[in-house]
Design goal:
The protein has 2 domains: 138 residues, FAD/NAD(P)-binding domain; 63 residues, no CATH class. Helix content is 24%, strand content 22%. It contains 6 helices and 9 strands. It has a 5-stranded parallel sheet. It binds flavin-adenine dinucleotide.
């Protein structure tokens, strides 16, 4: 996901996925043998407070850049594991907590030269139960930086609900699947992993994949997916479902 602030399409702004792919798989760490772009950044600002943001911020340090994290809530609300935050701090990442980007500042060639940020304070709890960050009007200031890594989460490909209207999805675009079988609303279609649970972990995706595999086998072999209810255990109609 991106922030939707002006200047976000500037040269030097990356999604965390692209940044980490360039650093690692495209060997940006092996400069000058590989001239992959993020290695040349002097100051990298990572936006976000999750584990992926911590990965990105620490990678930026290791490429020789100054590395700053901008996160709109306080440390207690950061979704990253405590160890990840601690290790990032220990390695030298600078944290600007309760700050939010308002725009990416660019030069005439649309290259990033800095970020305008605004200070935030915590207001009432929002839908997630965490206190909502509220901007402090007039508190904007400029940070010089030539690279920004946007690490504010990811969401399922919107093509899925667009192309398969008979596949039930949630308001976040994730696919609805029965957690006991991983069967979706479409007969013969099973789903699991991040596209069902939202961004989670490898182990949870693998667990759901195992459940799905077992029930795909049953489905193709014509075995009922769910055990028959033993006789006499049916719920009365008014309480069922
Ligand atoms: C930067 C980053 C760091 C992470 N670090 C950790 C970590 O340290 N530990 C951890 O447990 N989790 C980590 N995660 C989360 C973890 O990667 C995911 O939870 C996990 O990969 C989910 O697995 P999945 O199979 O559901 O989805 P994915 O791994 O995303 O796999 C989905 C696959 O489907 C393919 N695909 C998409 N559309 C189509 C299509 N139409 N046709 C065919 N193929 C398609 C995609 O190309 C992809 O290969 C991290 C995630 C990120 C982004």
């Amino acid at each position: 996901m991106f922030m939707g602030v002006p200047g976000e399409n500037a040269v030097g702004v990356f999604s965390a996925n692209e940044y980490l792919t360039r650093i690692n798989l495209m060997k940006a760490y092996d400069f000058p043998n590989y001239a992959t772009s993020p290695i040349r950044a002097k100051h990298v600002i990572t936006v976000g407070g999750g584990n992926v943001a911590m990965d990105s911020a620490r990678c930026a340090l290791r490429t020789g850049a100054k590395s700053t994290v901008v996160y709109r809530r306080a440390r207690e609300q950061m979704p990253a594991r405590d160890e990840e935050i601690h290790h990032a701090e220990e390695e030298g990442v600078v944290f600007h907590l309760l700050h939010n980007p308002t725009r990416i500042v660019t030069d005439d060639d649309n290259r990033m030269v800095g970020m305008e940020v605004i200070r935030m304070e915590l207001g009432e709890p929002d839908d997630s139960g965490r206190r909502r960050p509220v901007p402090l009007e007039g508190s904007e200031y400029f940070i010089e930086a030539d690279c920004c890594v946007v690490s504010i989460g990811n969401s399922p490909n919107p093509l899925i609900p667009q192309t398969s209207p008979d596949l039930d999805t949630t308001r976040w675009g994730t696919i609805v699947a029965d957690e006991n079988t991983m069967l979706t609303s479409k007969p013969g279609v099973f789903a699991g992993g991040d596209v069902v649970s939202g961004a989670a972990t490898v182990i949870s995706a693998m667990g759901q994949a195992k459940i799905a595999a077992e029930h795909i086998h049953k489905y193709v072999m014509g075995i009922p997916l769910k055990e028959e209810e033993p006789e006499g255990t049916e719920q009365p109609a008014e309480t069922a479902g």
